[in-house]
Amino acid sequence: MDQKKRQNYDYQESEAKRFKPGVPQSKAEQDEQIARIRRQISEKLKDLEKKNPHLNSSTSSIGGGFSVPPNPLGGSVRPTLDSTARAIQEAKERAMARLSNFPQFANITHAPERDQGRKGLGLKVEAHPSLQHLFEKTTSDTGKIPFNLIPKANFATTKANQRVAQAATKKKQMKVEKPDIEAFADPSKNPYYDPNLAVESLAPKSRISRHLRFNKQGKYIELANQMRTQARLEKLKQEIADSVKKTGMDVELDLVSDMSVKKEAPPNIEWWDAPLMKNPEIFDPSEEGINFDTDHGSVITLYIQHPVQINPPVDMGPPPPKPLMLTKKERKKLRRQRRLEEQRDKQDKIRMGLLPPDQPKVKISNLMRVLGNEAVLDPTKVEAQVREQMKSRQDAHKKHNEEKKLTKEERREKLKKKLMEDTSKVVQVAVFKVNDLSDGQKRYKVDINAQQLYLTGIVIVCPTQCMVVVEGGPKGIKQYKKLMLRRIDWSDSKKMNTDEEQGDEGEKEEGDNGTGEGETSKEKKENKCFLVWEGSIKERLFKNGFKFKPCPTEYKVQETLEKFNATHYWELVKNYVEPSLV
């Protein structure tokens, strides 16, 4: 048996090698091959019949070489199939009997038997109608189904193709046709049309959203005030009406009615339009009614009138904020950044050809490194050129500095702007008491410093004592206080020494009786300056600069200060007590 199997295997292998798939063959070769295979199958079936005598060899063959074996239990295959179909039919009948007990399945009936000729060859199940042509159309030679008759799915089997199919089978939107408005509005065609209720379009309009409108602040307060005013007016009218009725004049005078207050009708032409019209009593805005004749008083000319701008009569508000004060390091940094930016701009212009390139900055120290061979060929000539360039650069530097210098007038204005202070709101005042101002040098210092600091005031020179009053800004007053209290040496040693020598000679001539008088004269010669009062006032009292006023008597002092309303300053100086004498 094993030897036969081995022979069959070798035979099949040789046949497989002989007939390789994919190699094209002729019609005769194919028929010969099919016949050989059938002979082989029939020989194998005969061998099986010899080994198993129960097999029925007289059964019908399929396709020439194929035969169906009989039932091993005895009998044919057909009775077995009939019994199976009968059992299936009985099971169906029992299931239908059970379902008939339920009302919802009462209408179910047996399905009609279909045409047996349309059943397939497999399990004798009825084929789908779309597959019936497969069993009807077959080739006569091979019995195989042609390739062009194999059914294909009428739907997409992949997700990508399904999406494409869905996009292709989108529902088309219905086209909304506009109604015929003319036919609709025709009374002969539409008897129900009312022209009073006509609209511009019968199509539905989209609702336009309305914006929020907020009430202005104080709207209802103003309405309430108007209502209160109207109520007070009605009350006043009622009071007038009552008083008129008491006097019996309500018939003669209609004072309480609204028509009693008559308003004048507006004029035909306003006064500002009258000079423009030919007839000042009639307003005619047309070109014929306007007066263009300048010789007869027309104000319409070729010239444009530019009104003079005046400052509004209100406070201009706080001044603008001052720029931020920078430190010395920050100012240097800003200057460095600015100069670097200018240098970059200059380099860009040189690259674009807008400016000529700068000449090399040659000095005696880098002469050989910059010029090279030219300095070696003629060093004397090159040195002279380098020195000339150095001199020209120095001259240009000096010229630039001279151009940037301020003139005398500009320097004076700059110093004035620096010293001038705003005293429109507050004025600082300082009052000094000086024992003696007879020295011309000290008087000059007091006068010239007040003028240089743009201070106003007065100096009262009196034999008993002197008074100095200055007005100005806080910076100027501060500098002037330093001058009067610290910088000027009021007890000058040179003058004191000369006065003491003259006093000693006078004492020797007078003798012992003049000792007390000498001490008193020595006390009078001691000169000092004191700050009596310092404060602020609203405006200047002395507006004509800084002046000296010699006043020999106290009456003259009072008369002089009354002109400036400054007599209280003299009272302060008179009543002042020196700190050393307290």
Structure description:
There is one protein chain. The protein has 582 residues and is of the alpha+beta class. Among the domains are: 228-258; 267-308, no CATH class; 328-388, no CATH class; 418-508 and 521-581, 2-Layer Sandwich (Alpha-Beta Plaits). It has 18 helices and seven strands. The protein has helices at residues 2-18, 27-51, 77-99, 132-136, 159-168, 181-184, 219-247, 328-352, 367-371, 373-377, 379-404, 408-419, 440-452, 474-487, 493-510, 515-525, 554-562, 567-574; strands spanning 61-62, 66-67, 427-434, 456-461, 466-472, 529-537, 546-550. The protein has a five-stranded mixed β-sheet with strand order 6-3-5-4-7, sandwiched between helices. Helix 15 (493-510) runs antiparallel to helix 16 (515-525). It is extended and about 175 Å long.
Write the layout of secondary structure elements.
Layout: H1 2-18, H2 27-51, E1 61-62, E2 66-67, H3 77-99, H4 132-136, H5 159-168, H6 181-184, H7 219-247, H8 328-352, H9 367-371, H10 373-377, H11 379-404, H12 408-419, E3 427-434, H13 440-452, E4 456-461, E5 466-472, H14 474-487, H15 493-510, H16 515-525, E6 529-537, E7 546-550, H17 554-562, H18 567-574
Parallel strand pairs: 4-7
Antiparallel strand pairs: 1-2, 3-5, 3-6, 4-5
Helix pairs in contact: 15-16
